[in-house]
Specification:
The chain has 587 residues and is of the alpha/beta class. Helix content is 65%, strand content 11%. It is built from 20 helices and twelve strands. The strands form three sheets. The protein has a six-stranded mixed β-sheet. It has a four-stranded antiparallel β-sheet with strand order 2-1-4-5, covered by helices on one side. A hairpin with a 2-residue loop joins β11 and β12. The structure holds adenosine-5'-diphosphate.
């Protein structure tokens, strides 16, 4: 119940709509309650029985016309109120799912890399779709259904008691049994629904993995294995659904049987009262009609219970995400960084992705504005980790990182990231035009600016050679760019943001000589005037670096410029010599 309450509080901005739906519901139920009474009165009037109503003394034909007219008016008003109720409750449910989905998405966007390292995409997708839909259903039908049930139960109980209290008490004997059955039924289904939701999410994960990894699947001819994995999961889901269907199939006739009991009792006892003249036929009919009105909502108790339990498990899964705090938090009094000069200092920085072992160990260095820093070291030595710490994708475990002397934990994340540009080698292209992709980080850039950076990144010629130039569609189902083109697009993207600090991942370049030349030209332009951290194997760039950091197992083992490190005759010297030999060999 706590989860349901939290969901209701969460959507408080939509309460006005919900209140409107409640008012329409109350009106529609009120009008509906008039109808059985009128029908009973009509029968009594036709049979010349004193009905106690105002018009019983009128001529019978007139009285019956009046009764019929009242039924028509009440039915029409009820219809109008029902329209309002359905429209408002559906609208509120759509608005609620819109709110929840957006909050969910925004939270996912805000969560740090540490969260996304462990999260499964399929799981998150299923939460954003299946679980949000379950919550929407609750707001569309669950809440209203519960209220309708409450109003009808109270109103009809009162009416039946005033009509004939002995008969009423007899029928009420069955109500606890029906209610109990509905509630136990839904509590039996709750764990099954939770399992179904989890299985759906797991199925989504398998699908997502095999689709994104389709090339690997085909290369290793593992289609059969992947197909089996999917089929196994689908079988589990199928079995659970069949389980639910079986439970429902048993429940339905059982409920119907329970519901018919009071009607039989009324016919038996009420019939005798009519024969003895204690009750009129009209009153007996009214009684049976009112009881009939109660049948549907009480029967729906099971469905509402079902909805409640689905909402509870779906709500739990959604709130779990909404409650997750990002490991990288912005201070409440964080300041705007503004445009920085670009001095970057790491002061005794240590970092660990998990509690097992440190990835970076006590690293300190100071980089002057505009300097070029080359990060060298074997695979896994911590180069990318340093690159990830500067824009605060992760927080340092100990020590501090300062930009222009300000601890990066004291500034807003947005202002920090506006100052730190990252150009990756294999970038992600969003579905859109090539222009949109270049302007991804600077949506307000105009056509001239986009073209200028494309020219600077040596990409312009290539783009205008495309059939639709800058409007060519790339990304999923669009044009595929080569590795070199992607890298230049990434350079153009970063140039447009014009950051003071730049992080370049250029570690796995394997392109032809001409592309290599273009990339090197584009890079040298990009680097100019910015503090740059580059992970690269390109010797000319490394030689030019103001600071070379040689990393090994998360420690800086050598630090200095090319000449200093060469005269040291340490690891850098060795690598430089061997690389020169290799590049000489290849020429
Ligand atoms: P490099 O860029 O020098 O190849 P990394 O900085 O990527 O090295 O990695 C340093 C160490 O941290 C490696 O042992 C790697 O396995 C580990 N590591 C990298 N990224 C993560 C991550 N997201 N979660 C846990 N461990 C990671």
């Amino acid at each position: 119940m706590r989860i349901i309450l939290r969901l209701i509080i969460f959507v408080r901005s939509r309460w006005a709509w919900l209140a409107g739906a409640f008012v329409c519901l109350a009106l529609s139920t009120g009008f509906a309650l008039i109808i059985p009474r009128m029908l009973g009165t009509g029968i009594d009037t036709a049979l010349r029985v004193e009905s106690g109503f105002l018009w019983w003394s009128l001529p019978r034909e007139t009285a019956i016309m009046l009764v019929a007219g009242t039924v028509i008016v009440a039915s029409s008003l009820r219809g109008a109120a029902d329209y309002g109720r359905t429209y408002l409750s559906q609208t509120v449910s759509q608005k609620v799912s819109y709110d929840i989905r957006n909050a969910f998405y925004e939270r996912l966007q805000r969560l740090s890399f540490a969260y996304h390292d462990h999260a499964q995409t399929g799981q998150l997708m299923s939460r954003a779709t299946v679980d949000v839909e379950a919550i929407r259903m609750f707001f569309a039908m669950g809440i209203i259904g519960l209220l309708e049930l409450a109003i009808l139960l109270v109103a009809i109980t009162a009416i039946l008691l005033t009509l004939n209290w002995q008969l009423a008490l007899m029928t009420f004997l069955f109500m606890p049994a029906i209610g109990w059955r509905a509630i136990t039924f839904s509590s039996r289904l709750r764990p099954i629904w939770l399992r179904i939701q989890e299985l759906m999410a797991a199925l989504g994960t398998i699908l997502e993995e095999s689709l994104t990894g389709i090339r690997v699947v085909k290369v290793f001819t593992r289609q059969k294995h992947e197909g089996q994995k999917f089929a196994d999961q689908a079988t589990l889901l199928y079995n659970e659904h069949i389980g639910v269907a079986r439970q429902m199939a048993i429940n339905m006739p059982l409920m119907l049987l329970l519901m018919s009991m009071p009607t039989v009792l009324i016919l038996w006892y009420g019939g005798r009262q009519v024969i003895n003249g204690v009750m009129t036929i009209g009153d007996l009919t009214t009684f049976i009609l009112y009881l009939g009105m109660m049948v549907m909502p009480v029967r729906r108790l099971g469905m509402i219970g079902n909805l409640l339990s689905r909402t509870q498990s779906a709500g739990q899964r959604i709130l779990e995400i909404l409650d997750t705090e990002s490991a990288v938090k912005e201070k409440p009094d964080a300041i705007e960084l503004g445009k920085v000069e670009g001095r970057v200092s790491l002061e005794k920085v240590s970092f660990a992705y998990d509690s097992m072992s440190p990835t970076l160990d006590n690293i300190s260095f100071d980089v002057k504005p505009g300097a070029l820093v080359a990060l060298l070291g074997g695979s896994g030595s911590g180069k990318s980790t340093i690159a990830n710490l500067i824009p605060r994708f992760y927080d340092v475990t100990a020590g501090a990182i300062k930009i222009d002397g300000i601890d990066i934990r004291d500034v807003t994340l947005a202002s920090l990231r506006q100052n730190v540009g990252i150009a990756q080698q294999d970038i992600f292209l969003f579905s859109g035009t090539i222009r949109d992709n270049i302007a991804y980080g600077a949506v307000s850039a105009n056509a001239d600016q986009v073209e200028a950076v494309a020219k600077a990144a040596y990409l312009h010629e290539y783009i205008i050679g495309l059939p639709e130039g800058y409007e060519t569609w790339v990304g999923e189902r669009g044009l595929t760019l080569s590795g070199g083109e992607k890298q230049r697009l990434s350079i153009a993207r970063t140039l447009l943001i014009n950051p003071s600090i730049l992080i370049l991942d250029d570690s796995t370049s394997s392109v032809d000589a001409e592309t290599e030349h273009l990339i090197r030209q584009a890079l040298s332009l990009l680097i100019k005037g910015r503090t740059t951290f580059i992970i690269t194997h390109r010797l000319p760039i490394i030689k030019n670096a103001d600071l070379i950091l040689m990393l090994d197992k998360g420690r800086v083992i050598e630090m200095g410029n090319h000449d200093e490190l060469m005269s040291n005759e340490g690891v850098y010297h060795q690598i430089y010599q061997s690389q020169l030999v290799t590049s000489d060999d290849s020429q």
